[in-house]
Design a protein that fits this description.
By secondary structure, this protein is of the alpha+beta class. The protein has 24 helices and eleven strands.
């Protein structure tokens, strides 16, 4: 995703940064507000200036300091790095280098800092998926205590934590806040609204399948729709080339692991009921006891990573990738596959990240109407046959500011100022306008996004709906995200390539996960919060217990069900 740098250039010019060193005072702040923010803020100009005055004053002890922070490369973080970091430098005199690297590289750098104690970065924008890691290892500063003690003088009075929609994802079982969200995006269902509403398509679908073409509620309906559109001639609608009923990716790459741990298994119905994550068995198939200690991953220890619902989940993904997707999709990664639906030949995608919204509403795309409205919409993802009411139904990414204990206090304080600057109410509406990754209630509810909503394909409606709470990141059952996440793409990759059956690959995955849990248990590095594995029992023993893991269903094809999109939207209001 590429950011339009016109606004960045305007800010840099306005701040005088092309001709000399940055200066730290309110003149720079006012130039930034004039050039970049204007009316695109939930705050009045007076309140914007009050927030800027805080940054000017609080940064005084750190002027001249150079700090480094890091994030993955998405549009929102490009905006932070290329527009907000130079502005913050000019306003505060703290020189910020905001590096943009791959998500896997971010995790690797953070892991290296955890293991070595070397201060590689002064702050990380790190997915809240690591909340279980951070809570157990105690190598990041918990922000609740930080804001009351060492970070008190550098905490923005108008930060307003209650305005953030994702702090439940970054709070440990101890009630402490470990990370502060700076962007969020959900993984939803994406479909061609114009194709689904075409009278010929609707009639042909009804004749073939006996029910109405609409947003699929379950995987059986999704599969029918995928079959219906794959190879369909839509030249009468101006569609050139082959049409496909599904889009996905399958390359053996770290992003393949995220595609599964980002709630695919819970969408199938693998885990237990519970929000924000299934308890005691979560969407990774990991079981915990009442003390939140991981007790197993394989069915024989009460886990569900290799349970029938997990095998069903992987089997369906492979079948749809092979039968209904562009041939190149099997060799694609997350970032390569993301833009494909916008090219105009895909009918639907079950597993579509809203981070791609900004790049899917560009006016010259074949999926956009001439009036600036999209030909596509997003909706809740359908669920699999094992899914039950109250189970987690989707994933939400919450990239969040994380301060390591190994970072010197003064550097952490300076980095905390920058972190708050890019999530401040002054800035957040404009940042959300660019990246469309909402973190604040006040931004979502703004008149600005009421006006933009018709051009964003259902994104605003989703984030304003009560439905959004059922989409959540990885929870606290996962005790060491970096170590465990790499096992997923390596093992699932074997199933995607055909080297192993889904059952064989998941058996290997759960065994690998339990070896990591055993090592953590023996090492005792997580104290009383670390794993304590159950004794092995027969699978039948666990299938007879309440909740996950669930025994195999005799029939994994349920009656297909769809709903009209416009009716669905009404239910969100």
């Amino acid at each position: 995703m590429k950011l339009n740098l016109k606004s960045s250039t305007a800010v840099v010019l306005a701040l005088g940064m092309l001709s000399g060193p940055a200066f730290a005072d309110m003149d720079a702040a006012k130039a930034f507000l004039d050039a970049e923010i204007g009316d695109t803020s939930v705050l009045s100009r007076a309140d914007q200036e009050a927030e800027m005055q805080f940054f000017v004053d609080a940064a005084a002890p750190y002027q001249g300091m150079e700090i480094k922070v890091v994030s993955e490369t998405i549009t929102t973080h490009e905006y932070e790095s290329q527009v907000l970091a130079p502005a913050f430098t000019a306003i505060t005199g703290i020189k910020v280098t905001h590096d943009l690297i791959g998500e896997g590289d971010v995790v690797e750098k953070l892991q290296t800092q955890m293991q070595s104690g070397e201060n590689i970065y002064d702050a990380y924008i790190n997915d809240s998926d690591l909340i279980g890691t951070h809570w157990r290892y105690k190598q990041v500063r918990n922000l609740t205590d930080w804001m009351e003690n060492e970070g008190k003088d550098v905490t923005l009075p108008s930060l307003d934590l209650e305005d953030f929609i994702g702090t439940s994802f970054t709070t440990g079982p101890d009630g402490k806040l470990y990370q502060l969200p700076t962007q969020q995006f959900a993984n939803l269902y994406w479909f061609r609204y114009d194709w689904f509403n075409d009278e010929q398509n609707k009639a042909d679908f009804k004749e073939k399948y006996g029910y109405d073409l609409g947003v699929p509620v379950n995987w059986s309906a999704y599969e029918d729709i995928a079959e219906f559109f794959t190879g369909r001639d839509l030249s009468r609608m101006g569609v050139e080339g082959d049409v496909f009923g599904n889009m996905d990716y399958g390359k053996k790459d770290p992003s393949l692991g995220w595609r599964y741990t980002d709630a695919w298994m819970s969408m199938a119905g693998m885990g237990d009921v519970g929000e924000p994550n299934g308890l005691p068995v979560d969407e990774w198939g990991i079981r915990v006891n009442e003390q939140s200690q991981p007790t197993g991953s394989c069915v024989t220890r009460g886990g569900a990573t290799n349970a029938p619902a997990a095998v069903y989940a992987v089997t369906k993904a492979i079948e749809w990738l092979q039968n209904y997707s562009p041939p190149a999709a099997a060799g694609m990664t997350f970032s390569e596959a993301g833009p494909i639906p916008a090219q105009g030949n895909v009918a639907q995608q079950m597993f579509w990240y809203t981070a791609f919204t900004a790049d899917t509403v560009k006016p010259d795309l074949p999926v956009m109407n001439e009036d600036g409205t999209p030909k596509w919409r997003m909706a809740p993802s359908p669920h699999g046959v094992y899914w039950k009411e109250g189970q987690k139904i989707g994933y939400q990414d919450a990239g969040s500011w994380t301060l390591m204990e190994s970072t010197p206090v003064d550097r952490a304080q300076a980095a905390w100022l920058y972190a708050q600057f890019v999530v401040s109410k002054t800035v957040d509406l404009k940042k959300s306008d660019v990246g469309l990754t909402f973190i604040r209630e006040s931004t979502i509810d703004s008149d600005h996004f009421t006006e933009r909503a018709p051009r964003l394909g259902g994104l605003v409606e989703f984030y304003r709906s009560p439905a959004r709470v059922a989409w959540s990141p990885t929870g606290t059952n996962v005790p060491d995200y970096p170590k465990l996440a790499q096992l997923w793409w390596q093992n699932i990759g074997d199933a995607m390539s055909g080297a192993k059956t889904p059952q064989e690959a998941l058996d290997a995955l759960c065994s690998d996960q339990e070896r990591v849990l055993e090592r953590l248990e023996r090492a005792g590095v997580q104290g009383d919060l670390g794993p304590k594995l159950n004794e092995e029992q027969t699978a039948e023993y666990w299938f007879e217990q309440p909740g996950a893991p669930y025994p195999k269903l005799e029939n994994e094809d349920e009656e297909p069900k769809t709903v009209a999109y416009d009716e669905l939207i009404k239910s969100w209001e």
